[in-house]
Amino acid sequence: MDNSNIVAMFEMMDSAGRGAISFVQYKEALKTLGLCTADEVLKGEGHIVTLDQFRDEVCIRPASLQAFARKF
């Protein structure tokens, strides 16, 4: 995914411009993008997620999902 798209998505969730989103927003964004299943347990409940953390996860998860899919 292109960096400008990742930044735009993050900024939509960070409407207050704090530079961080809640863990709940982060989890919902991953589900919406198809990078996380509804029943997947993510660590970090209650913490904030910065743009750098969000970007890293969005970029890493597709590779992880593809590797998992190749096993089956």
UniProtKB/TrEMBL annotation:
Signal peptide coordinates: none
InterPro entries listed in its UniProt record: EF-hand-dom_pair (IPR011992), EF_EFCAB10_C (IPR056587), EF_hand_dom (IPR002048), EFC10 (IPR039879)
GO molecular function: calcium ion binding
Pfam family, one: EF_EFCAB10_C
Domain of life: Eukaryota
Domain EF-hand, chain residue ranges per copy: 1-36
Name of the protein this chain belongs to: EF-hand calcium binding domain 10
Species per Swiss-Prot/TrEMBL record: Oryctolagus cuniculus
